[in-house]
Amino acid sequence: MINILWFLLGFFGIEVIATLIHKYLMHGPLWFIHESHHRPKGKFELNDLFAVLFGGTGIWLLIAGSLADFDYRFWIGLGTSVYGGVYFYLHDVLVHRRTFSAKTPEITYIQALRHAHRMHHKHVNKMPSESYGLLFFNWRYISEIKKAK
Ligand SMILES: [Zn+2]
Ligand SMILES: [Zn+2]
User: What is the Å distance from ligand 1's center to 79 Cα?
Assistant: First the structure.
C-alpha cells in the first residue's frame, strides 16, 4: 500500500521539480541549452539532454531500488519513469508533434494542457514566459478552451 504512495510521490514530485527547474534554471542560467527547444532547428535539440538526465535518474532509481529488495527508490523511480512516458506523449507527441502523429483527444483537460504549453512557446526569449509546468497549469486555460468550443 505504502508503495503506491512512493509511486505517486515520484509521479507528481517530478512534475513539481521539473516545473521549478524549467522556470529557474532553464529560463535562467541554463537558457543556452533550453533555447534549442524554443527555437528548434532540426529533429534533435540540445535541450533533449534534460530528457536523458531525467530518464537516467529514473533508471538509476529503478536499478538501485530493485537491488535493495524493491525498496522506496524502485517505486519513486517507477513513478518518475511513468511520468516520463506521459510527458513524452503529451509534450513531444501532442504539443510539438515531433514523432508519429496522434489526434489530440477531445478532452478539455488535454486541450487546455496543450494550449497552456503552446502559450509557453509563444515566447522565444528567456524572459518573460508563462506556464512552466505541464500537468498543472492556470485555470484560465481551461476557461479559454471552453469559450472557444
Ligand atoms: Zn521553456
Ligand atoms: Zn515544449
Answer: 23
- What does the chain come to in residues? 149
> What is the pLDDT, as a whole number, of residue 1?
78
- Copy the grid coordinates of residue 78: 517507477
pLDDT at 101: 81
pTM score of the predicted model:
0.94
Residue 60 is placed in which grid cell?
538509476
d(CA 77, ligand 1 centre) in Å: 24
Please tell me the distance between residue 1's alpha carbon and the centre of ligand 1 in angstroms: 36
Domain total of the chain: 1
Ligand nearest 123 Cα, by number?
A: 1
Cα–Cα distance between 88 and 81 in angstroms, integer? 11
**In the chain, pLDDT over 90 holds for what percent of residues?**
89
Q: Which residues constitute the domain of residue 64?
A: 2-148
CB proximity list for 18: less than 8 A, separation 6 or greater: 54, 133, 134
Q: Which amino acid is at 65?
A: G
Q: What is the pLDDT of residues 70-125, one digit of tens each?
A: 999 999 999 999 999 999 999 999 999 998 888 999 999 999 999 999 999 999 89
